[in-house]
């Protein structure tokens, strides 16, 4: 029986959560949390970043063209996805990796129909390659894929436990927000780790977003089951 309030979801996991390079303890932690989340009966796809290996914006500051640097960053997301897929499968979780970048013999090309079918069958689909275009973040990829795959919610599992008025690591007086509308986030009055371009996609299509801390055990499962964890961002009339 499905225990999840949100039956279909995309989980965005940043590359930093994989550790410097690829840290096996970090990957095992992520896989354990996803395995537990799958037990709720929710159908999941994961969009992974690649910032632990290479970050396009940082390469561009070293003189590499931004387009070339972003291409390197997109390839890094494929590495993270392949590693996480293997660990998930060793834990007994059926998984598949699809990428908008064509890397024949390693990953399947992204296909909306087959991805939805995999999710319906209970597989966790790891979505790599970002959007396939430079100048766009993996947050934007997550928002676009969430709409294409018709999920109920977009989950951003990150290093902080939600959205604050300022950086909570630097400002002890930072105010935590458990609920916000899109305008409050986009007008710059809050500190969120979500790309404004991606937030605009969510706003324009009424896609709800929950930002929460990955490094608290069981959080992905709890969010899927409807527990009031993290910060909910949606339309004014939404009920969480």
How would you explain this protein's 3D organization?
With 240 residues, this protein is an alpha/beta fold. It has a single domain, classed as Acetylglutamate kinase-like (Carbamate kinase), CATH 3.40.1160.10. 36% of the residues lie in helices and 19% in strands. It has helices spanning 24-38, 56-61, 66-90, 112-120, 138-148, 182-186, 196-205, 219-224; strands at 8-13, 43-48, 95-99, 108-109, 124-128, 153-158, 163-164, 176-177, 179-181, 209-213, 231-234. The strands form two sheets. Strands 4-3-5-2-1-6-10-11-9 form a nine-stranded mixed beta sheet, with helices on both faces. Strands 7-8 form a two-stranded antiparallel sheet. Strand 1, helix 1 and strand 2 (43-48) form a beta-alpha-beta unit. Helix 1 (24-38) crosses helix 3 (66-90). It is globular, with a radius of gyration of 17 Å. The mean pLDDT is 93.
Content of β-strand: 15-25%
CATH superfamily: Acetylglutamate kinase-like
Per CATH, the class reads Alpha Beta
Structural class: alpha/beta
- Write the H/E string, N to C: EHEHHEEHEHEEEEHHEHE
For the residues shown, what is the average pLDDT? Answer: 93
Q: What gyration radius follows from the Cα positions, in whole Å?
A: 17 Å
So what's the overall shape? globular
> How would you sum up the major sheet?
9 strands, mixed
Low-confidence stretches at least 5 residues in length (pLDDT < 50)? none
What is the helix tally? 8
Quaternary state of the chains:
single chain
Helix content: 25-40%
In total, how many beta strands? 11
Distance between the termini: 22 Å
- Look up the CATH topology: Carbamate kinase
The strand order across the widest sheet is 4-3-5-2-1-6-10-11-9
Architecture, CATH level 2?
3-Layer(aba) Sandwich
Number of domains: 1
């Amino acid at each position: 029986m499905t225990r999840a309030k949100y039956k279909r979801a995309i989980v965005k996991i940043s590359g930093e959560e994989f550790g410097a390079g690829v840290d096996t303890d970090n990957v095992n932690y992520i896989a354990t949390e996803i395995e537990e989340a799958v037990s709720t009966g929710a159908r999941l796809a994961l969009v992974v970043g690649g910032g632990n290996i290479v970050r396009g914006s940082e390469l561009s500051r070293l003189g590499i063209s931004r387009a070339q640097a972003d291409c390197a960053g997109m390839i890094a997301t494929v590495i993270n996805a392949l590693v996480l897929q293997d660990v998930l499968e060793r834990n007994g979780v059926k998984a598949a990796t699809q990428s908008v970048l064509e890397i024949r013999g390693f990953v399947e090309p992204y296909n909306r129909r087959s991805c939805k079918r995999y999710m319906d069958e209970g597989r966790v689909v790891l979505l790599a390659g970002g959007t396939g275009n430079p100048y766009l973040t993996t947050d934007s990829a997550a928002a676009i894929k969430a709409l294409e795959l018709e999920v109920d919610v977009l989950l951003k599992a990150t290093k902080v436990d939600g959205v604050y008025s300022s950086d909570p690591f630097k400002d002890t007086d930072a105010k935590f927000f458990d609920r916000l509308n899109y305008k409050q986030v986009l007008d710059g009055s809050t500190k969120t780790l979500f790309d404004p371009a991606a937030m605009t996609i969510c706003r324009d299509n009424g896609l709800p977003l929950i930002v929460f801390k990955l490094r608290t055990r069981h959080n992905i499962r709890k969010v899927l089951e409807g527990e009031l964890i993290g910060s909910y961002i949606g339309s004014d009339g939404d009920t969480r």
